[in-house]
Amino acid sequence: MHRITIQYGTPADPEAFEQHYTDVHVPLAATLPGLRRFTRSHPRALGGGAPYFVAELWFDDADSMKAAMKSPEMAETAADAQTFDVASMTMFTGEVTETDV
User: How far apart are CA 101 and CA 88, in angstroms?
Assistant: First the structure.
């Protein structure tokens, strides 16, 4: 699996951010080709700072993720993200390795 992780800083208006994210941004992201799973969370710090909000977009493999990144659907989703009034936004990509414990 490969994942895109987006960390958002605190928005100027958290209630408006949450509503727009749920009503507009999630439906846009849901159209990404090859998207297998989409999670979002409000992490809580364990002794340090934490982002306000984290979204994760999961794909079967690197090729699927790359295709989604180059798609018109991603362009539309990214354009919408540029409208967010957040303190910061950081995006990471990477391979996910699972280990049985």
Answer: 35
